[in-house]
Amino acid sequence: MREIDKKRKQSSGEPSGIGLFAKKPRTSSELTDLEISLVAGHGHTFLYIKGKDGEDKLYGCGNDAGQLGLGNTTDRNEWTKVPVPQGFSVEKVIAGNYHSILKGKGKDGEEKLYASGKNHNGQLGLGDITDRHQWTEVPVPKEFTIEKVMAGRSHSFLKGKDKDGEEKLYGCGWNIFGQLGLGDRRKRKKFTEVSVPQGFSVEKVIAGYGHSILKGKGKGGEDKLYASGWNKYGQLGLGDRRRRKKFTEVSVPQGFSVEKVVVGDNHSFLKGKGKGGEDKLYASGWNKYGQLGLGDNNDRNEWTEVPVPQGFSVEKVVVGENHSFLKGKGVGGENMLYASGLNHFGQLGLGDKNNRRKWTEVPFPKGFKLEQVAVRNYHSFLIGKGVNGEDKLYAMGYNWEGQLGLGDRRNRKKWTEVPITDLLKKLQKDVSDSKQEGGVSEASGSSSSSMGLNPRDCIF
Fold first, then answer.
1. If 0-12 CB within 10 Å is exposed, 13-18 middle and 19+ buried, where does residue 434 land?
2. Strand partners, 63
3. How much is the pTM?
4. Which residues are CB-neighbours of 8 under 8 A, at least 6 positions away?
């Protein structure tokens, strides 16, 4: 555990702005006209609040590298209001390990990006390697329309279109393993255009510690995967352990149709369908802690079918640095959760600190109805409903920066309720006060909120 913690403190960078957003707003008796998303990095967590009247609010905890944009690097173990740039409307919050990016609109409707946090590899795209402790505007490539922003451990991507509607991909940051796919190993301090394979249309960019995967379509409309970067453990799924500096086509198992790609720091999963339409799960990469769920600790350098618990139907694969979760349904249609991998900080939610090499059922808090599970490097969250239909948030695992939002810095090895009810009341009061001051126009309508987690754009 000391070795892992030492490695964490010495490492720099991020995993991938992360996200898993609830797709529909949810009713909450504590809120009026607010929509909420939970977004997590390694050492920080955001609550992003969007009012129907258009007002944006951010609350955060953690902040060891200034990634909350508060102007300092003081950790917060309680939810703290995060000011956003004046005239800026937030649309997405993207969190890496130690950096954060806000995507949204300026006062005249123009696209804007702001970033804060660690920048020693140029991952903020600001043209230098100076860290930022407050939100700083990021220059966007000329005549480029941003569709998605993705963050890896210490590298970032922008996906979008140019003025002629042609798809473009830009990357910046750490590139020592070739994870930007630029054909070299030089870091980039500003967003640099990435050449994608000819005839290939990028749908998703999935970024890990030192590797990146592109999911999309070939010129004939067929599914294609390309990968670049670190491959020491076989995480690119190319059948070897050689790193790649350019995006290289990845062969998928015969008869398998890829629906989703999910990556941890150094391991990867493919979720999809077999030739008979049956659900299938494949994995490759680092497996020292059993994070592939294969029943052993042997790494894989090619896609290996992952056995899932009997009678269990996988809906989501959610991964941290070295631990993994499967969310889905049991034989009776009930929500179920399974976990495997590193558990030194209790992040598997099993009540102990023992690693698991195969999928082990994770018990829920009593009366809790699971809707979403989300994880980061060494900690995990459950999002759902309580017995009376109220919003509930539970947290588990590493908490040294206060990123669990529990008011302290103690790790947890059991699911611990995050006091979200009091927080929601506080948020509602802030909005009410703002309305009384004339800062927000009155709005009518039903109460709503949505919670999700944006641990990397690796979950889609």
1. middle
2. none
3. 0.86
4. 42, 377, 378
